[in-house]
Amino acid sequence: MNTKLKGLYHPSFEKDSCGFGLIANVDDKPSHWLIKTSITALTRLTHRGAVAADGKSGDGCGLLLKKPDSFLRSKAIELGIDCADQYAVALIFISPHAGETEISQAIIEGKIADQNLVFAGWREVPTDISACGEEALKSLPAIYHAYINAPDEMNNAEFERSLYLARRAIGKAHEVLENSRIDDYYYISSMSSNVLSYKGLIMPANLPV
């Protein structure tokens, strides 16, 4: 048998990695079926992640999906948040402790404004802690959506660039907070006008909870 290697491939490139799946509607129409199917696919990858002794805490799983515009706009209306024609929603983990939450939120709002973006409002994301194991509960953050509007004259590419710069600046500011032990819960899962991410230290089957 000829074992001579061909092309750029070499067996040494093989390595273990986390599981990943991609599911899409070719007509680009949003559907609950797509989300349900994605979660089902994610449960098939449970063996790719670690499970804590409590049987419910994982090493992280989640979904990255196209921004659900109609849903997010409806929630904004309920909260009195004014969404511009072009807006973004960030998913942010911050400290659940009173006082610390406000400090993080003030920093986030300030860094967004520094990029000439308009902070529109906060939405606390509903959570069900029954999905979490004992280990995950030890570091359970407060989870918020941050609504961010683009100026009228800004195109999408410029908006995404400004969101990235705001996210980096927020992260740098929180490094100081973490060193002072004010907010070591902070994490931005996503900050984009195009996509939204949900994730947590849970098992894939509990993600819908």
Please provide a written account of the structure:
- It contains five helices and six strands.
- It is of the alpha+beta class and 209 residues long.
- It has one domain (11-206): Aminohydrolase, N-terminal nucleophile (Ntn) domain (Glutamine Phosphoribosylpyrophosphate, subunit 1, domain 1, 4-Layer Sandwich), CATH 3.60.20.
- The chain has a four-stranded antiparallel sheet, sandwiched between helices. It has a two-stranded antiparallel ribbon with strand order 1-6.
- Amount of helix: 25-40%
Under the CATH scheme, the architecture is 4-Layer Sandwich
Uncertain stretches: none
In total, how many domains does the architecture comprise?
1
Classify the fold: give the CATH topology: Glutamine Phosphoribosylpyrophosphate, subunit 1, domain 1
- CATH class designation: Alpha Beta
The strand count comes to 6
Instruction: Please write the string of helix (H) and strand (E) elements.
Output: HEHEHEHEHEE
Described by strand count, sense and barrel closure, the largest sheet is: 4 strands, antiparallel
CATH superfamily: Aminohydrolase, N-terminal nucleophile (Ntn) domain
